[in-house]
Amino acid sequence: MNDARLKPEALAAIMQSHQNWSVSKDGNAITRNFRFADFREAFAFMSECALAAERLDHHPEWLNVYNRVGVSLTTHSSGGISARDIEMAAIMDRAAGRFGI
User: Fold this and answer.
1) I need a labelling partner for 55 at 20 to 30 A (CA). Which of 66, 75, 90, 95 fits?
2) What angle do CA 29, 26, 20 make, to 5 degrees?
3) What is the chain's mean pLDDT, rounded?
């Protein structure tokens, strides 16, 4: 997986297909807030994503409060957003889709 920071033009094009995600104000991360039916669903989502993140060796910054999960993805070694973040976002989107999100 390429950990090089994405150029702004490439990132803008990629984000067209990831419209539930936003680029942070500083341009160094992509973020999304998920809302589930309850804590059990939120925790199941986080568990599934944690296992995928471990396989990718790419771990999200996230926060869970009851049925809400806030996520921020960045590649620290590149100082910004890389293809690895986009891959993790896609994994999270698929996982959330299993809960109807």
Assistant:
1) 66
2) 45
3) 95
Q: At 50, phi and psi to the nearest 5?
A: -65, -40
Helices 39-56 and 83-97 cross at an angle (nearest 10°) of: 150
What's the pTM value of the predicted model, to 2 decimals? Answer: 0.94
Report if residue 75 sits inside a domain. yes
Q: Would 3 be classed as within a structural domain? A: no
Residue 55, pLDDT score: 95
What is the residue range of 26's domain?
Answer: 8-97
pLDDT, tens only, 14-61: 999 998 999 999 999 999 999 999 999 999 999 999 999 999 999 999
We report the CATH number of the domain holding residue 15 as 3.30.1360.20
Q: Please state whether beta strands 22-23 and 30-35 pair in parallel, antiparallel, or not at all (unpaired).
A: antiparallel
